[in-house]
């Protein structure tokens, strides 16, 4: 989409005045004087999440064990709300576990290597936790990662070549796991095209939605992947370390869960406490332990808010405000060696902007000193995420002005290049 921007404060104020989502900002706890640009790592706390958590506390206080009468299927209830974000069936989406445990759960269920077909295809740019899990799974099957994990190399260290991924789908590949949105460069992969190519070759394929869910609309009824996993603490603002999500296509409901646990047992026999596992014939059969209600409750609040708005409106604002940020980088910061390291096309970029500079780490420290919260990714990327639900255009403008001052005066040189514990 073509946007008409100018590099003055007046337009930023006008954009905020005409922003249909401007009032949603009031739902979040914005800290005075702070410009928060790290919602792609940890979304801000919302009043909706807080109220949902306090409600769950009240239920626990007043009902005790009787609370299970209403919340026994809470993971599926939240899953149904999350299913709206990806256009999946309610019984295919579950809120459970962590991103990594859900990778293990899905892969251990669907990865059945044979002599001829035993490899798992991955890329070399995905977030490391997925690779750690994949390497563990092939070891459990008696292989080494060197022989059973097939890696598609990025041609430039920024983007995944979709043609190379499809070309790598050889007869020895049993399963594929890829990111929908790259955490570093914000590249969106064409899930429909790649999934179709995998299925044409009888290959199981799953997607990591961690940097996609809540940021971009998805249509799993159309794409029909085999599985997907995601966290809920980024764009879904469900809280630090909040419970993750799992999608399993209904065609796999008859398969034995690779990691069985009592909460995945059939409802009608669960409390018979048999020693023979009988899994529920929907995605709830992939639950392992008792759901952690206090950790799940905030997600209900944020999902209710997001679904009341709709992903199309959220995506529209996200595309516009990230385009505005890229425009200001070009206009004000390029002269100081800054470049945009993410795709510029609307259909190819996620919800954050990658500002690249040789001294990116030091600049990120200088920003924090000025009460701007970004995050940094090696080797030179400052990720900036103006979140549609709570970031204003004026904040984007002010942040770029602060960056311009840091770069112009080289105040970043005051900061060490030594990496901290959390970057």
Automatic annotation (TrEMBL):
Its cofactor is pyridoxal 5'-phosphate. The modification N6-(pyridoxal phosphate)lysine is found at residue 234. Its EC number is 3.7.1.3. Pathway: Cofactor biosynthesis; NAD(+) biosynthesis; quinolinate from L-kynurenine: step 2/3; Amino-acid degradation; L-kynurenine degradation; L-alanine and anthranilate from L-kynurenine: step 1/1. InterPro entries: Kynureninase, PyrdxlP-dep_Trfase, PyrdxlP-dep_Trfase_major, PyrdxlP-dep_Trfase_small. It comes from the Bacteria. This is Kynureninase. It comes from Bombilactobacillus bombi. NCBIfam families: kynureninase. It catalyses: L-kynurenine + H2O = anthranilate + L-alanine + H(+); 3-hydroxy-L-kynurenine + H2O = 3-hydroxyanthranilate + L-alanine + H(+). The keyword Lipid metabolism does not apply. Catalyzes the cleavage of L-kynurenine (L-Kyn) and L-3-hydroxykynurenine (L-3OHKyn) into anthranilic acid (AA) and 3-hydroxyanthranilic acid (3-OHAA), respectively. Homodimer.
